[in-house]
Fold each of these.
Amino acid sequence: MRMTTARVGHGHKIIKWFVATVLLVLVLPLVPYVFDAYADKSAAPATTSSVPSPGAELWRAVRQRDGIVSGTTQARGVDAGTLINPAGEEWREYRVTKLVPYSAYIFGAMLAVFLIYYLVRGRIRIKGGRSGVLIPRFSLYARWVHWVGAVSFMVLAFTGLVLLYGRFILIPVLGAEGFGVTASVGKWLHDVTSPLFIVALIFMIFTFLKESLINFKVDMMWFLRAGGYLGGKHPSAEKVNAGQKLWYWAVALGGLAIVASGLVMYFPNFEQGRQLIQDSHMIHTLASVFVISFMIVHIYLASFGVEGALECMTTGYCDSNWAKEHHDLWYEEMEKEGKIGTTFESEQQAAATASAKPTEG
Amino acid sequence: MAAMKFYCDAERCIECNGCVTACKNENEVPWGVNRRRVVTIKDGEPGERSLSVACMHCSDAPCAAVCPVDCFYTTDDGIVLHDKDICIGCGYCFYACPFGAPQFPSDGAFASRGKMDKCTFCAGGPLEDNSSEEYRKYGSNRIAEGKLPACAEMCATKALLAGDADMVADIYRKRVVNRASAALGSGYQQRQMNFGPKGGMSGKVTN
């Protein structure tokens, strides 16, 4: 017993000393900080700590850590006074690690979806067969507007994609110098076709505006039934269905974004800075990827995807049975107006005689 | 395998633009193109410093990464060069480069860009060394003659250093050490020697 109490007493002593040491080592050095925290700062003059490090200040400014710092320089040129442009690296990241791979995945996925759809569903035939009775659908003017816009956009899209993927796909085939020539021609084509597309886009927006206005009830129903493409009854549609309306708005809004951002890049003579061009490039590419992937849908469905669709834009006429199946509301409208089986010429003549009559009478 | 680098010593550069002139003269640079430029930070204020900047011949060059026609290549000396026969003048390298090194002579309507031009470290281009065509397209090829870039050779205060990265770093390290010992030996307060707002003619330490 004695031994143990002694031991306990000894142990107490050790703990006491231990606690005292801990207090001394850990807490005592903190005491000045407590004083400092409550001290009156206003009276104390700044001492050594206010001397700035000249090297650190200079390189912070050069490295643009606190926003863009432009110096003075004798050199004349865009952003010549900026020593380091940090945005360049962000743009590189965007183009090399995001734009190139992800856009390829998106286009690949779109193509794969339609290939599978074609293999599973096949071509969508006119169920009732061709009736042989034609309805005038797109006037010669509308067809011209469509095709000028379509061809110029395809040229722009193709040359743009050559610039985007050529390094990975075409250089192994053509070699660096061969591709240099191809890319030069492509860039030139891109430059000279763009004014044509701008004009065509403006015409397209006005020409197809009326039929592309949203009819909420009909269009919502069309989307809920996925246009009848995934089976089930074909939903009602006006002259153009809800999907085509969406395509119109994609072209209109996406096209305007592409044109606006493209013009910024087209004219370096206004000496716009790199930041603005980088932002424009980002808008240009994102909008283009969106419109091109939508274009894949449009081309598939309007050519071999749906029987009887392509002829509307080539001849201007559609088959009455096709119209009944795909655009029933429009068919009813045409029936009411008595335009089934007519031609553009006969309509024009009818319109001419109708307008001529009052003057005679 | 050397790695050629430029280094501009901000404590020595006096913004004389000698390097810019030397470059233009040596390489017959096209009008409107500045392969090298001197930029002054805080011009006329305390703490003013100048730096001469051109292509820094990056190890992982952003220009080469974004080039759609892959016209850039790195020589065995670590010099980043490009092939003007492949370049299409798209301007991507100019957007990506942190230093604003790629320059474009205006060519045709609306100042559309011609073939890109940039500092070659006076190493010419992919054509035959010191041929007239190489000179016309890329300027002189001093590296092939065993010389260093004209800008650095011309620098009066030896602020602009060019050469193998290890040797440039060595020279600069010695300078920094000497400056520190000079500062200690001079007996001034640090504030007086450096370029804080007070302390009279602030600025350059000897060496």
Note: The radius of gyration of chain B is 19 Å.
Amino acid sequence: MGRYILYRLISAVPVVLGITVIVFFIMSLIPGDPATAILGAYASPENVAKLNRDLGLDRPMVARYFIWLGNLLTGDFGRSFSLNRPVLDEITERFSATLVLAGVSLVLCAVIGIAAGVVSAARQFGWQDKAITFAVLIGISVPSFFLGMLLILTFAVNLRWLPVSGMYEIYGGRTLWDLARHLVLPATALAAVATGVVARLSRSAMLEVLRQDFIRTARAKGVAERGVIWRHALRAAMVSIIPVLGIQAGFVLSGAVYVEVVFQWPGVGRMLVEAILKRDLLLVQGGVTFVAACYVLFNILVDVAQSLIDPRIKA
Amino acid sequence: MLSARLSRRALLSASAAGLALVSLGLRSAALAQTPPGVLILGQVAEPKTLDPQAATAANDFRISANLFDGLVRFRDGTLEVEPALAERWEISDDGKTYTFHLRPGLTFHDGSACDAEAVKFTFERMLKEDHPYAKTGPFPLAFFFSSVTAIEAPDATTAVFTLSEPYAPFLANLATPTGYIVSPAAVAQHGADFGRAPSGTGPFKFAEWRANEMVAIEKNPDYWDGPAAAEAIVFRPLTDANTRTAEMLAGGLDIMVEVPPVTLSQFRTDAFRIVEAAGAHLWFLILNCKDGAFADKRVRQAANYAVNKEALVNDVLEGTATVAAGPTPAAFNWAVNPDVAPYPYDPEKAKALLAEAGQPNPKVTFFVTEGGSGMLDPVAMGTAIQADLAAVGFDVTIQTYEWNTFLDQVNPGLSGKADMAEMAWMTNDPDTLPYLALRSEAWPEKGGFNSGYYANPQVDDLLNRARISTSQDERADLYKQMQVLVHDDAPWLFVANWKQNAVSTAAVSGLALQPSFLLTLKDVAKA
């Protein structure tokens, strides 16, 4: 197992390097440069040239890539033009906010999605199945940013139960309770689609397993139905559910972009959107590399978890 | 059996969740109130820097305008300069030497003295590339002061500026954030992080910056011009306009700036107050005077007659702008020519002019941006203009670009690419926009912003003379003549002057918006 993990980690290095190359050159190729973004209407060729010189952007692209990569390897992500602070500070702060939001959403979607899928499968064609299928359809169809706006209008503006935006009250103690109140709406909006997908796939995975011989055997030897469903069938079905969770983690991370904008959540998704609009090269490059590396790492974890659950998958 | 268990459990957990929500609601009802004496203000973005020389965005200036002062400032509600840190000044007869006399005993928030050496330091840091603190930049708007060749400090309260040539907008530029005086001691202490730990002389001093959450400033009790009304102001970055509106409606903000036109009606109640002010802003279309249909002046005038500007400002912009008459916004009250009236909406006249020009159906390409500083609602406006032009015979093709890409297309000149393009400018002096964007010396290849290649030697001459005059009356006269010529030549399609807006709760008093777009909050209080 140790060798398997090591092998997977080493093979992830070229993937992440490839991502740095792609991000760097895409950012360099899109029209509009940081100097233009900073100067706005004052962006005359002369002013742009001077500012690019001040920002160190007058050197050739390839040279800039290797300087950036070299600094990256020593942990120096550079300084953001648009925020005037070290990129790494910004990314770690923002990424932890996103992790909280995405993590809670993922747990929500795993717990509710799997539970709903199991119930649906156990009661196939029953009223529970129909109700869940209907709810899932709505969850999958409503875009998260729209759901987010509806939630804000209902629970924050009209009912005033929950805060509209942000992560903490400005004049609060930054308590866990404060954080939880701010998390309810964005986490719900973000989890909705993924929960629907997980519920549907859990349902079909369970149905498949429930038709198999060992389930019949379990029932025949008198295991209670609850035990059959939750202990025997679910464990077998988890083998196909876990990779779905891994993929959903990616969707939740990318979906966080919209939700973070709507709820002004200080996360990495919103940071990247703003950084791209401001042509903040270092922030985009650093941010995407960081997120991509985390995603690759997460997938390795999922594969490892899967091989632990299913002895048939061997290193 | 299973179903009974599950549904009972589901019911239980659902009611538990419901209870939890209700109790959350009871708790937060009390929290939604903002604290007394503290104004919470919804901004449009996370600020970049509070270093006034390094900043370029109105969003950053809204904060720094309350932390710093310049040698001069704009008189309340106008774009005329009045004394600030300098109590008086003299201009030499040749217009090249400005001598400022500072108020005695001024101090920065960090306790150090604000004297002539600090003035010298502020400008040399920005202008001299070998200055020990030049690396605390870049200073993108330093070109406002590119004509300054030397700053001397003969004594503690006298600062003397020498210019390479007479430059009339110099005083107005000193009143902008790029001219605010910074504490040399604080720059030395914080270096490149001065923008996150600023120290000036203003009515408020910097208190705290929590990234992506808020910037707080608090009252400076020793302010030279009397203390501020509020104890503190908290600026919250709320990028999404809908979220900003929701926060305001939910009671999380006392003041919100840049209210989207479509949501303005929700605030027309007794609980809120709407403030508006016409700014020194012009929204226009650059017409390509060099090649294509608009090379003919009659076609340019036809376009000006064809567009229903009233409908644009009232329907598309919901009354958040006024119709522009010519190249100089009415906010420059001393320099605007009252005889220059907007082109009336007259489609018949437009058709007649097109027929006279022998181009009843000119084909034109129209560059539209998706957004951008001061661009208001560019896509909706572009579409409405396209429809108006089509009604008199134009065949308009729209090409839409994201803002940075758009600037990359438009600023190097429209030739070979387009016949017209949207543009908007916010300026502080009537010189700036026409000097940078209407002179023949300002064509893109010469480093200017005249992307439509307009050229009129008389306009060049008037603008050059106005720039070197030190008499405001003489300048006003020259600008008025310029407006008549430019209005008739129609190198642009003059559309709108933006009225900036803000909303406050009814408990807030003293909020006013300035034509300079700077937000001064010294006299704003909350009951």
Note: Residues 281-500 of chain B form a domain with the Dipeptide-binding Protein; domain 3 fold (CATH 3.10.105.10).
Amino acid sequence: MDPLSRYEPLLDDPAAFRAACERPLPSVVRVNRIKATPERVRRAFDERDVGYEAVEWHDGLFRLDDDVSPGNTWPYVHGWVYGQEEVSAVPALAVAPEPGERVYDACAAPGSKTTQLAALMEDRGLLVGNDNNLGRLSALRANAERCGVTNLVVTRQDGRNFSLKPFGGERFDRALADVPCSCEGTVRKNPDALEDWSLEHIGAIADTQRAILDRAISITREGGTVVYSTCTFAPEENEAIVQHALEEHDCRLVEFDLELEHLPGLAEWNGDTYSESMRRAKRIYPHHNDTGGFFCAKLEVGA
Amino acid sequence: MSGNDGQRFDRLPETDSERDLDGRATREEVVGWWIDRFGLDPETFDGHSFWEKGAGKIWAFADELQSPADVEGLGMTFLRTRQEHWKPTTDAVQRFGREATRNVIVLDDDEAVRFLRGDDQELEWDGDWGYLIAAHEIAGDVEPIGVGLYLYGELRSQMPKGRQRER
């Protein structure tokens, strides 16, 4: 079956959605504020005739011209920028960590959102970047070091039963569960993303997503924040997972600002109904802002 | 005396009097080396704790954790000790080297490109021999690129393979 056709009834302009999914994605970099300012990155690009345009909704993101290979620019060498898709910058902004806090990133590698969290924390406090794959962890370490991050502890645990033992048993102020998913929203970057798509696969991955979010909520303090995100459209991996968390835990969905055009989370799908508050979650579709697709929900624990 | 375990992070002792392991550097020595070598503000590292994992590899971490720590990474690799000449890491030089007031060699455009490629090059330098911060001018200021080893009129690029670039 054609997986994307499932979502056409949800959309204002299904043809535009289709067309956007078939276009390649622009190359975008995020300024790493541990080492540089947007002004200095602009100046460095201008000096070397690197073509770019600013991204309206976020002053630390630049879309690069098609002929630019970001990894070969001086700003990349200096760790001033990180290649990161625009929508992928959303969840760390929703987490909104403060310098000095304790923050947990459940599925951290290869590190675009982790390094963004570190920069928002001004490289102070405790940031735990967890992943269960050794190869991906070495990429996470290398990316964090290039960005000058010194407040990151890298762990290799199963996010479904993450242990606080190395951290004195103390819970976190904030957590990000940017979970593995069916990646439908990355089809512009990777046209093969939908090749192995099946409802059975989604069912299996949803079990993992539920368990990772459950654990993230359990190890976050009362009054703390947990953000859940995926790069997929499937409600089975998005609203249904958040709904489960609302039913199992003392937590609630909260609003957050996002200047990107988006649609609210779904209140129902295929006969299942979700909490009215699910409208506080955000769905970002490729044709709205010429980006990848994304889902993001912000929860407050024990409030 | 406890042994050095290469699979976990052990916090460095503060000073020589607290040293419990032969050959392990102290925090005082590690911070002192950086501040002396590169003329940094003595308070630069006040917020960091320092750890050893593996033989001589020192890590700088912006927070506290119980020692020993059984984790995969702790802050940033900072300095290589347990050898005659201690050697700073590329990542630490990029992170902390911007404020350096000595042992910084500022390269012109062509020299910077050669350095980034990993090439050795003959250069004039009146300062100390040994490990220097190789830097260049970009966007209105001097920015560190990495570690150079200066010996006998030659600057040897220490750019790690994965950080080298053909430009």
Note: The helical segments of chain B are 27-38, 90-96, 109-117.
